[in-house]
Every structure is written in structure tokens, then in C-alpha cells.
Specification:
- Keywords: Ribonucleoprotein, Ribosomal protein.
- With about 130 residues, the chain is α+β, with helices and mostly antiparallel strands.
- The protein has one domain: Ribosomal Protein S5, domain 2 (2-Layer Sandwich), CATH 3.30.230.
- The protein has four helices and five strands.
- It has a five-stranded mixed beta sheet.
- A hairpin with a 2-residue loop joins β3 and β4.
- α2 runs parallel beside α3.
- It is elongated and about 75 Å long.
Length: about 130
């Protein structure tokens, strides 16, 4: 079987993945999934699309992750895995969309405005 690639983004995180037939090994930046994401919650988030389709032991996934924090990275990786699974089998799209794995979360950090310390926070007002 050929290698399928996909891209997932969340906040400032970008996940580029390459999926091939295999035994269920997920390698992120040349490190194992459990080593890269020690938190079991983040590991669960990454594996959600695979568990939904009962495909956790079918594919080997090689990931290039950059940018953002660990939460954004795990959610970017989840989106990339869902997109790759749909590329392999288009009938899976409805099940993944129902769980919300196919939707790119557009929220990102609001920019800082001039004359303010943060995006919306103003400097303290002094009457006198």
C-alpha cells in the first residue's frame, strides 16, 4: 500500500503526517508517542480518530510536529490523522465528522493592540 500524507493545524501548531500499513506505531519527531506526549489525556486525543474506526493497530504513522504548545499539537495531530484516514477510505468521513474530528478549529490568539498591555486589557485609568 502507498503512503498517504495529510496536514493538520491548530493555533500555531502544524502536524505533517505520513500514514502507511503497519502495526500501530506512532512516531513523532523521531520519538515514540508515549515519550513525546507523556500525558495519557493527550495520547487519548491523538488516538481518537483511530479508536473510532477500530484502526489503531492497522497503520504506522510518522509525524513532523512544530509550533504551538502540547495541547495545540495534539489537536493538530488528531485533525491530520482524521484527514489521512478519509484519504484512505472516503466512507469513514461521516463517522469522523459526527465526532467533530474533521473540523479545523479556527480560534487563535488575538493580536496585541497599540497603547494597551494586552489584546483587550487597558492600562489602569487614573482620574487625577
Amino acid at each position: 500500500m502507498e503512503v498517504v500524507n495529510a496536514l493538520g493545524r491548530r493555533k500555531r501548531a502544524i502536524a505533517r503526517i505520513f500514514v502507511s500499513e503497519g502495526t500501530g506505531k506512532i512516531t513523532i519527531n523521531k520519538r515514540d508517542l508515549a515519550e513525546y506526549f507523556p500525558s495519557t489525556i493527550l495520547q487519548y486525543v491523538v488516538k481518537q480518530p483511530l479508536n473510532k474506526l477500530d484502526a489503531a493497530e492497522k497503520y504506522d504513522i510518522k509525524v513532523n510536529l512544530c509550533g504551538g504548545g502540547f495541547t495545540g499539537q495534539s489537536q493538530a495531530l488528531r485533525l491530520a490523522i482524521a484527514r489521512a484516514l478519509v484519504k484512505m477510505n472516503a466512507e469513514d468521513k461521516a463517522a469522523l465528522r459526527a465526532e467533530g474530528f474533521m473540523t479545523r478549529d479556527p480560534r487563535s490568539v488575538e493580536r496585541k493592540k497599540p497603547g494597551q498591555p494586552k489584546a483587550r486589557r487597558r492600562f489602569q485609568f487614573s482620574k487625577r
